[in-house]
Amino acid sequence: MVSSRIPGLHRLDRLERLGRLHDVGWLSEAEVESLAHGGALDAALADKIIENALGVYGLPLGVATNFRVNARDYLIPMAIEEPSVVASASHAARVVRLAGGFAASSTGRLMVGQVQLLDVPDAEAAEHALRQHAEELIGLANSLHPAMVRRGGGARGIEVHHVLADDGEAMLVLHLLVDTRDAMGANTINTMVETIAPAAENLSGGRACLRILSNYTDNCLARASCTIGPDLLATGDYDGPEVRDGIVAAGRLAEADLHRAVTHNKGVMNGIDAVLIATGNDWRAIEAAAHAYASRSGRYRSMTTWRKDKGGNLVGTLELPMPVGLVGGSIGLNPGTRVAHALLDVASAEELAQVVVAVGLAQNLAALKALVTHGIQRGHMALQARSVALMAGASPDEVDRVAEQLVKSGDIALARARDLLAGPA
Ligand code: NAD
Question: Which is catalytic among the residues 47, 82, 201, 257?
Answer without folding.
Answer: 82
